[in-house]
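Lab meeting tomorrow. Look over both lines:
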Amino acid sequence: MTGYSPAWWLPGAHAQTIWGKLFRRQPSQPTEVERWDTPDGDFIDIHRLKAPSSAARLVLLHGLEGTVRSTYAQGFLGEARRRGWAADMLIFRSCGDELNRTRRFYHSGETTDLGFVMDRILTEFPRQSVILTGVSLGGNVLLKYLGEQGLNLPIQIKAAAAISVPFDLSRASRYIDRGFSRLYQRHFIRSLKRKAVAKLEHFPDLVAPERLSGIRTMYEFDDLMTAPLHGFADASDYYSRSSSLGWIDRISIPTLLLSAVDDPFLPPEVLGEVRAIARRNPALHPEFTLQGGHVGFVSGRNPFRPSYYAERRACDFLADQLAQRVALSA
């Protein structure tokens, strides 16, 4: 089904998941950053990789607490550069080098910023084909956006790829609060709480500091911070309305769904539900490997020369879809 062969020297899902964060060495790509003011008085940063005006444009969305320095992000930008594509990486609010201005942050179902970015890109480059990819949280945002747009998606957008998506946020939040996966949860909570404390300097009524300090799980953070800040009743309401599982049946363009069954962020039965939906929607192309961890997919026989399957497979899929569109229009 896929060409992925997991690295023998990284046994298990956690080794695959952790490797990229701790040991991957990825050269930085020559992007230029632009700051775009948003309609609500905030800003977002876009890292842009230039290419000829006739090239396709790859729009990239990062994962929870990711940045342009995330190794998978640089991997995707490197793939785009190698293929001669332009690229635009959206940095979600508060994930850049400067905290955003407004009370709100970003979250797994927030698609208005992506819509704002897509409208601007399509206006700026009306003749270029656009392809999209999202990783983890960014993949959930991407799939929800595509589902919301449905058949009304602009014709310049040709295909998409989503990697290690937490399709069901409620079950994902419970799954990461067990066993070794709590290590990842603690990492995210530390980063999110640090930003929330910084927000309190500008918005002291945001949350009681003592309640913030007591947070230990993603559910507790989302219930205290994410949900009320973004108009949800509570964490359960946020998860229900934001999970891409409820939107993927409406996606209308070819979309690769690449995940590993052993992903420590998501119970494997969720992928079975995704596969069932994909059988009813031919636009969806699920590829679920038995191994690979979360945004891992490390391969290669030599530990000193690893290769990274996810970026290559996603960009191969997107390139194939672009080639098919060209062939059909010839």
